[in-house]
Amino acid sequence: MTATTTDRPPPGVRVPKRRGVELSLLVGAVLLSVFGYMDVGLARNGAVPPDAARYGAGLGLLALVAHLAVRFRAPFADPLLLPIAVLLNGLGLVLIYRLDLETPRDQAATTQLVWSTLGVGLFIAVVVLLRDHRTLQRYAYLSMAAALALMIVPIFFPAVNGAKIWIRIGGLSFQPGEFAKILLAVFFAAYLAANRNALAYTGRRIWRLQLPTGRVLGPIVAIWLLSVGVLILERDLGTSLLFFGLFVIMLYVATGRTGWIAVGLLLAGLGAFAVGSLEPHVHSRVEDWLNPYASIEAGDGPGQLAQSLFAFAAGGMFGTGLGLGHSVLIGFAAKSDFILATAGEELGLAGLTALFLLYALLVARGYRAGLALRDPFGRLLAIGLASILALQVFVIAGGVTGLIPLTGMAMPFLAQGGSSVVTNWVIVALLIRVSDSARMPRPETVEAGTIAPLVPDAR
Amino acid sequence: MIPYIRRAAALLLVLLAALLVNAARVQLWEAAALDENPANRRVAIARYEQPRGNILVDGKPVTGSRDSGEQLRYERTYKRGPVYAPVTGYSSQTYGTTLVENAEDGILAGTDPMLAPLPFWNDISRAREPGGDAVTTIRAAVQEAAYRGLGGKRGAVAAIEPSSGRILALVSSPSYDPGVLSGTGRPVKEAWARLNGSPNQPMLNRAIRQTYPPGSTFKIVTAAAALDAGVVTDVDAATDTPEPYVLPGTRTVLPNAASGCADASLADAIRWSCNTVMAELGVRVGLDGMVEAAERFGFDDPGLRIPSGVAASNFDRDMSVDQLALSSIGQFDTTATPLQMAMVAAAVANNGEIAYPYLVERTTAGGGRTVDRTGRRSYRQAMRPGTALRLQQMMTEVVTEGTGTNAAIPGARVGGKTGTAQHGVGNAGTPYAWFIAFAQADGAPQPGVAVAVVVEDAEARRTEISGNGIAAPIAKAVMEEALRAEPQRP
User: Fold this and answer.
1) Which of B172, B216, B308, B327 does the annotation list as catalytic?
2) Where are the membrane-spanning stretches (chain A) (predicted)?
3) Nearest one of A410, A413, A454, A427 to A365, comparing CA atoms
4) B114 reaches A (C-beta below 8 A)
5) SS3 A3
6) I need a surface site. Which of A46, B122, B261, B297 has the fewest CB within 10 A?
7) Which of B1, B41, B49 to mutate to test binding with chain A, by most A CBs within 10 Å of its CB?
8) Does residue A346 contact residue A321 with C-beta atoms inside 8 Å?
9) With contacts defined as CB-CB under 8 Å, which chain B residues touch A356?
10) DSSP single-letter state for residue B464
């Protein structure tokens, strides 16, 4: 697990690739999703949905093609990553299909399946085309520029539900900020990997905080401020919170300075307070969080957060069963922001815990790949990508369960939203790629000379 | 770098733990409170998700359920709604429930824990039992006869089986169709406003929720009090009552509708409905004795439930002597529900004992298994059995040769008492026509029915209003139906 030489298998010993494990887990994931799909039909209409076989075949085919890509192009990759992604995506499709039954005018499951297919397509493209994650290091500044461009574009498009984060072309809507997450993580990882010694050891020391020189810290802080600023301008508080957390975690992992965490938390607190009290859209959400039942007391009926809490409460320990809840009461964001409330109502605390643990496993596997890698860029990239998933899950799940103020974000893989599902598939593809490098026997034992010897890790 | 990665992972683990703890807080600890929040529609949705159980009359449902396809899915329907409204009440998605719909709501909606075969099982499985049925004591033929008899006139009928307390008919007129209140939305709200705004008060259950001055029918209570107190020992002896009779302590002369009331015996006073004699007897019994006697019949009892609450009938506990005299003939502040007066007739018929009146015979689970059964209970001993026997005789004479001849039924012994109650300021209102009666088919071991009929007939001319003319024929029709067939034992 650690990068010491003792972990390395001696030459000539066959390293277990665990592709068979992956395949059997994939079969399980697909079956679980299909059973869920059938369950919804049985609960609602007393019959298995007529297209259950087609749905199963479609999901199975996607999983199989993705598996083949991994088997031939990333044979040492972590066998848990792909099955978890397929299971989450499959369950998401089941929940969206289930919610479609309540909203005859808004059928989203088919669209989501198309986006999922596109996501898996991109997944395969990344796994097949990106032979070594270190290639990305070269495109750090290009990534940064692209990320900023993607984030700025929606400013020129009209706001949707109070947030200017959408691009609408024809009938398609796309959230470019979603994809900027990956690009920014790539940039942060590359920059921090290149400058981490300077960040950690140069500059002036103020009390216990080692302050790096402006020359080193300046550019990255500027980029970060720019992106968070743009997001605040677009009223996308969730994503700006995500970027903030991502930046702090990556900075901490790169420099090991606890002070950064403290400064980060302080700044986050100040920023959240300022935005929460000054920006009306955000302010109303903070008010909702502090008193979710205010609208009931005012006689206007329950707001979305109150409805969400009602849904979770209705689920109890074991849930009402798929298709038997009343998530329709939550309203228009039931398939996106609040899809977790449906999971909580129909699968109960048991199902919700299982979902959280699936995400935790996905994140843990990303961290594990980060630990096992030997190049700082790969490490930081793995940690960054896994943290994106973790923070996203925390922010949205914490929001809909009343733990933190609600910010419009998509539950990875689960929620309706094309850009989100595509982005998350790319994240998993990159994690597959880095975990393949991490678990691959040392290059010199397989393809000696094709890859340059790695820089020893300076901890 | 590795320790920092581990620490970052630990941070994320803390976030995961916070999520899990918070989810458990919402889904387990606060769940009950959130489920019961009145703004949470889930309770209402669950309530109307399945057809409601039915209310049965003669073994046949008088209610039904209709799948509306709306969020609140099943709506209540009623068969012969106006006839049975004073029994069933309404079950409205907007305005809640009343009467049997209310009293047996847990059974009908399927939420009563007794419906589940295993205790607590449904709490765990979250399953809902299908709605159960409420089997009423009402007999369709009797109910229909009473409704037909009132013919839309303002009034009410209550009929009881004296030996058991079973309520055989409970009719209020004019009535309404509770089905118009079942659902939600504009038509329901409009119907509600229309029914509540109507001067006829169709939603008022006159049989159990409206009290009227009982007029001369109250003389049965006064007679029972006088006999029980020993004020009268021989019902055929002269009572030494003057005519004209001046109310004690006043100059007001109490009139009689009938002639020949001077010094009349108790039997004659009942037969011809002499105000003077009965007022004088009430005064002789005294306030305490009269209050006690009235309360033994059920007056002043606010706790009577059939299982819906019955309005308390009133006999004042603090009166001057002239007020007592008026109260003894069912005037002044004395008021009674039709059910109360049916209980007076039933007490006489059942040898002085009143069986607790009830409307729901038993409740069943969806499959027909009996969940609960209402047994016969004794309510009160209203008078001594000997007194009851004498009153039976006197009331029978009212029908055979007195003021209540219109209630006579061939082949049955019928006892009755007419009443014409004054009301309004200075008796300006149109009098109410009363008739209370019991009937025993020849050869039957005991009386089969006791009935009270009240008609507030604003249309008729005052002189025509009399218990015998308007109320007695209705009572007769009701009793004939009650005696016609052996009571069904569901």
Assistant:
1) B216
2) 21-40, 52-72, 79-97, 109-130, 139-159, 179-195, 216-233, 260-278, 347-368, 380-404, 410-432
3) A427
4) no
5) coil
6) A46
7) B1
8) yes
9) 16, 19-20, 23
10) G
Q: Which of A40-54, A346-360, B97-111, B265-279 has the highest mean pLDDT?
A: A346-360
Instruction: Among A2, A293, A312, select the one facing B26 at the smallest CB separation.
Output: A312
Conformation bin of residue B120: beta by default, left when phi > 0, alpha when psi is -120 to 50: left
Handedness of CA B384, B387, B391, B393 (dihedral sign): positive
Q: List chain A domain ranges.
A: 19-451
Q: What angle do CA A303, A309, A313 make, to 5 degrees?
A: 140
Parallel, antiparallel or unpaired: strands B133-136 and B55-57: parallel
Q: What residues have CB less than 8 Å from B308, skipping those under 6 apart?
A: B89, B98, B99, B100, B102, B103, B208, B359
| Whether the Cβ atoms of residue A424 and residue A389 lie closer than 8 Å to each other | yes
In order of their start, the domains of chain B are: 215-484 (3.40.710.10)
Verify whether residue B378 is a known catalytic residue: no
Nearest residue to A327 via CA among A342, A309, A348 = A342
Query: Is B5's Cβ below 8 Å from some Cβ in A?
Result: yes
Q: How far is the alpha carbon of B385 from chain A, nearest alpha carbon, in Å?
A: 60
Please give the pLDDT value at position B134.
92
Contact between B356 and B467 (Cβ < 8 Å): no
| Long-range CB contact pairs, A278-285, < 8 A, 24+ | A279/A232, A279/A235, A279/A237, A281/A162, A281/A163, A281/A235, A282/A235, A282/A237, A282/A405, A285/A237, A285/A405, A285/A406, A285/A407
Does residue A237 contact residue A277 with C-beta atoms inside 8 Å? no
- pLDDT average, residue stretch B45-56: 88
Q: Considering chain B, what is the average pLDDT of its residues?
A: 86
Q: Which residue of A has its CA nearest to B70?
A: A102
Q: How far apart are CA B158 and CA B155, in angstroms?
A: 10
Element (H, E) at A286: helix A280-290
Q: Is residue B464 exposed (0-12), middle (13-18) or buried (19+ Cβ within 10 Å)?
A: exposed
Amino acid at A25: L
Tell me how far apart the alpha carbons of residues A306 and A292 are, in angstroms, rounded to a whole number: 5
> Which residues make Cβ contacts (< 8 Å) with residue A307, sequence separation at least 6?
A329, A330, A331, A341
Which sign, positive or negative, has the C-alpha torsion A83, A384, A160, A403?
positive
Q: Is the dihedral of CA A127, A130, A132, A138 positive or negative?
A: negative
Query: Which H or E run contains B425?
Result: none
Q: What is the reported pTM?
A: 0.74
The ipTM assigned to this model is 0.88
**DSSP single-letter state for residue B470:** I
User: B6 contacts in A (CB within 8 Å)?
Assistant: 371
Q: Rounded to whole angstroms, how far apart are CA atoms A370 and A435?
A: 8
Q: For position B459, what pLDDT does the model report? A: 58
